[in-house]
Amino acid sequence: MAGENPFVLLAGILKERGMTLATAESCTGGLLSSLITDVAGSSDYFSGGVIAYSNEVKKNLLNVSDETLERYGAVSRQTAGEMAEGVRKRLKSSAAVAITGIAGPAGGTARKPVGTVYIAVITGRGKSQKIIVKKFLFKGKRLEVKKKSAREAVLMLLEALGA
Questions:
Q1: How many Å separate Cα 123 from the centre of its chain?
Q2: Cα(55)–Cα(66) distance, rounded to whole angstroms?
Q3: Pairwise CA distance, residues 21 & 43, whole Å
């Protein structure tokens, strides 16, 4: 994988396995979906994505629970996991990725500083289902945080798919 474009590598794996992918994005605002669709032939495996910037969209389109948002907040491991599961179910895909975080420059707190991002990946079904959620603290300006988040999401997908 060294030197290979991870988005192209992901495309090949998803096509080869006949899988589909859905995305749920908050702080990246659709950047991940854009980078996925930059690869020719992405309509073969990319179901679509939901930009869930507001809590209302997280709740109404992705079925993130009120309890999760109140107890843990929009930027949390729990919310990322529920976003991924929600978009996978809504778009009927075999894999899903969700990103939620604080890209900055404002919005950070002492507990959740700017650059705090949670990424959730779901692959497989039933007993073979894998759910991975990771927390990151990315450094840089807003666009850098968004780019790092999108890239890390794809690397996590590749890891979950055994690539």
A1: 12
A2: 9
A3: 10
Identify the three-state secondary structure at position 124. coil
Q: CA 84 to CA 133: how far, in whole Å?
A: 10
Please state, as a whole number, how many other Cβ atoms lie within 10 Å of the Cβ of residue 127.
5
CA distance 69 to 134: 18
Contact (CB, 8 A) for 63 and 56: no
Q: Which residues pair with 134 in a beta bridge?
A: 119
Task: List the chain residues with pLDDT less than 70.
Answer: 1-3
114 three-class SS: coil
What's this model's pTM, rounded to 2 decimal places? 0.95
Q: Given this model, what pLDDT does residue 2 score?
A: 54
Question: What phi and psi values does residue 58 have, to the nearest 5 degrees?
Answer: -55, -45
SS3 138: coil
pLDDT number for residue 3: 66
pLDDT of residue 79: 98
